[in-house]
Amino acid sequence: MSSSKRVLCALLAVGVFVALKPLAAMAQTDGEPPIRGGAVVSDKAPGDSFERAKAHVIRQTERRLTALDRLTGKIDNARHITEDHAAPLLRDVAAAREALRSGLAAVGATTTPEELREVAPPIFQDTLVFALLRPKTHEVIASDTVTAIGERLTEFGAKLQDALDRISGETDIDTTQAQSDLDEMIGLVNAATATGGPVAGNVISLQAADWPDPAQAALREGKAALGEARSSLHEARGLAKVVVRFIRSARS
């Protein structure tokens, strides 16, 4: 294999097959929604009902603490997240963790249904781990991933362009279709970056006070934008493979 072919193969491995798995974790709002207002347990409920309700609140609080630990790991291990985005997300996670732990202690100290009704709802309303913090984190990570992959594919596209220019200048091979495919690839990469790149900035500052509006709309729009960006990057990758095959064939 010639040195030029080895370079193209290496570029293909780095630029075209960049892992897109982080994009698959976008904007997930599944899971039990946060406990909202209203009675946790009836004033007239027997003692065992109070204990069951208290245990339920404790379980749900601990479930959210576990989710926060996972979010911390996702942020710490996110390959493409920027420091400007990782830092505020980690602060939000730390604040939610502190609120949940404080709430857990308060729930543990309750002895009556009235106390539980007063203590429990704010724990979930003020953190919104599943409804807001988790999808926001996923969208920020996915958005930064789109930007990073877009940059790498743009660089790769420039290398492919150089290769096509050499083929056109040194041989009689028609590069018209390959050039068209490359132009379309670059257009798709630019579209993906323009669509998915701004999502992080649009959602990262959302807090519980922004729920339901404007937070719900922003997350919904971010999820849709990232879905479009992911599709564009997959199409771009496919076109890049076509161009690489053409270049390999032309140089064989």
Low-pLDDT regions: 1-43
Structural class: mainly alpha
What are the secondary-structure elements, in order, as H or E?
Answer: HHHHHHHH
Tally of strands? 0
Q: How many structural units, i.e. domains?
A: 1
In percent terms, what proportion of residues is strand?
A: under 5%
Overall 3D geometry? rod-shaped
In brief:
Helix content is 75%, strand content 0%.
What does this protein structure show overall?
With 252 residues, the protein is mainly α. The protein has one domain. The chain contains eight helices and no strands. Helix 2 packs parallel to helix 4 and helix 3 packs antiparallel against helix 4. The longest helix has 42 residues. It is rod-shaped and about 85 Å long.
How is the secondary structure organized here?
Blueprint: H1 3-16, H2 47-77, H3 83-108, H4 113-125, H5 129-170, H6 176-196, H7 199-203, H8 215-251
Helix pairs in contact: 1-5, 1-8, 2-3, 2-4, 2-5, 3-4, 3-5, 5-6, 5-8, 6-8
Keywords:
252 residues; mainly alpha; 8 helices; 0% strand; rod-shaped; disordered N terminus
